[in-house]
């Protein structure tokens, strides 16, 4: 291309839609509108509804997990009870020990393979658990009840 051809080049006329953005001055009014329209609680200051839970939540975290036997420690659907089950060697007894964070024994359960037991009436708090069989620690972890 010659330099005089570039000089004669005319730019295209195109239209671009530009949306008006909110300014810093309109943000407080917008925030107040959102709070009023969503029915936000003035004490929380949150424009979105804050979830409330009608029941407790049980969380189980395992630190040591064994492949064999398979240990299961899980909450029921209503998050009220804790189930303990084992699938392992026939005839062996498996022991669950539930301790509070101070080391005090809170609950103990003994079951055999392919059995399940319910651990109930546990207060809210953080707990540690250990599972033994034949004086050998098989699994450890933490249970949090909120």
Q: Which descriptors apply to this entry?
A:
Immunoglobulin-like, mainly beta, 2 domains, 8 strands, 146 residues, 40% strand, five-stranded antiparallel sheet
Protein described:
This protein is mainly β and 146 residues long. 9% of the residues are buried. A hairpin with a 4-residue loop joins strand 4 (93-100) and strand 5 (105-112). It is 12% helix and 40% strand. It has helices at 3-7, 27-38; strands at residues 58-64, 70-75, 82-87, 93-100, 105-112, 115-119, 125-133, 136-145. It has a 5-stranded antiparallel beta sheet with strand order 1-8-7-4-5, with no helix packed on it. It has a 3-stranded antiparallel beta sheet with strand order 2-3-6, with no helix packed on it. It has 2 domains: 16-52, no CATH class; 58-145, Immunoglobulins (Immunoglobulin-like).
Outline of the structure:
By secondary structure, the chain is mostly beta strands.
Write the layout of secondary structure elements.
Blueprint: H1 3-7, H2 27-38, E1 58-64, E2 70-75, E3 82-87, E4 93-100, E5 105-112, E6 115-119, E7 125-133, E8 136-145
């Amino acid at each position: 291309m010659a330099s005089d051809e570039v000089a004669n080049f005319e730019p295209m006329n195109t239209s671009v839609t530009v949306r008006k953005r909110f300014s810093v001055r309109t943000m407080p009014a917008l925030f107040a509108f959102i709070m009023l329209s969503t029915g936000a609680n003035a004490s929380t200051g949150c424009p979105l509804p804050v979830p409330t839970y009608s029941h407790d939540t049980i969380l189980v975290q395992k630190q040591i997990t064994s492949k064999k036997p398979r240990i299961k420690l899980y909450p029921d659907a209503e998050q009220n009870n804790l189930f303990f089950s084992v699938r392992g060697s026939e005839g062996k007894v498996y022991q669950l020990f539930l301790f509070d964070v101070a080391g005090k024994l809170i609950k103990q359960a003994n079951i055999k393979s392919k059995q399940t037991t319910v651990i109930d009436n546990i207060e809210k708090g953080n707990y540690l658990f250990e599972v033994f069989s034949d004086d050998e620690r098989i699994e450890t972890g933490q249970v949090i009840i909120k």
